[in-house]
Predict the structure.
Amino acid sequence: MSNTWWELQIFCETELEESVFWRLENFGCQGSASERKGDSSVVKAYLPQIKVHLLDLAALSLWLRQDALCFGIVEPELQWNLIDEQDWASSWKQYWHPQEIGDRFLINPAWLPPPENSDRLLIKLDPGVAFGTGNHATTQLCLEALEMRFSDYNSFFQSGNTKEDNAVIADIGCGSGILCVGSILLGAKKAYGVDTDPLAVKATMENRILNGIAAERIIAGEGSVEALVKMLEQPVDGIVCNILADVIISLVPQISAIAKPSTWGIFSGVLVEQSKSVADALEKHGWIVATLWKRKEWCCLNVRRS
Ligand SMILES: C[S@@+](CC[C@H](N)C(=O)[O-])C[C@H]1O[C@@H](n2cnc3c(N)ncnc32)[C@H](O)[C@@H]1O
């Protein structure tokens, strides 16, 4: 018997889109995507029918309307209907298009031919049900921060064997594996990804293969920092973590234990109003917050150990 899924459609102004994505992610949705028409957006998201009751959907509708009121934006409209798994697996994909991110990346859905004549680093992706298409501001901030980190290495080590060739990265909450793949394309030697969701681990391994990356260069495992500690031979050079602020704060002590004096970190998934509490937690554990990058209501903290 096929599984049944809720397909949620939110008709909103583009200004509200990021907050809608955030609500949907917290609500447990998977495979969300948006389509823009002028100033309006249709955000689509999916979740298994057994996970929520109609009453929950009514509550979600209320939260979305309250968010719009806070921002002084026209209230969005939420519609829902049931579809079967086969339809779900393909329906959101038609709204996802190749996307340039930062100065160097081009994200290309696995089922589309890559654009011709692009000199960008191509990340081919099929996220399955995992988070991380590159559509979300929090992922974009991470990819741009990774570009910055690796260009620092390049300009510092102009010739010969560069330090970047040896950089080992940890990606906590790897989702589709987009940041692991991005790190390798930028020149990392190895990326370790962990995620509490086994489907994200599967997606990361599949996307490694899709991008022709050798098995020993992206190692993915189920779990969180405690799993990472078991996988690592020594502290890492860089840490990227795009999870919500509360989770980051709870993980900071363990994360600090896999760092060495030269380690840098990229912490994303943080709402601007939560940035101070995340920065406080990091500083308490020996990190220096170097820069804070913002995109809409989200921000990303670029930190270093010394
Ligand atoms: C916002 S997604 C980020 C995915 C991808 N890294 C990106 O930047 O697009 C967060 C991911 O963290 C995972 N996650 C949530 N809590 C976690 C935890 N405590 N430890 C590890 N992963 C966690 C979720 O399953 C999800 O895949």
In short: The chain has a mean pLDDT of 89. The pocket of S-adenosylmethionine is lined by residues 130-132, 138-139, 142, 172-175, 178-179, 194-197, 200, 224, 242-243, 247, 269 (CB under 6 Å). Residues 5 and 49 are 5 Å apart (CA to CA). Residues 137-156 form the longest helix (20 residues).
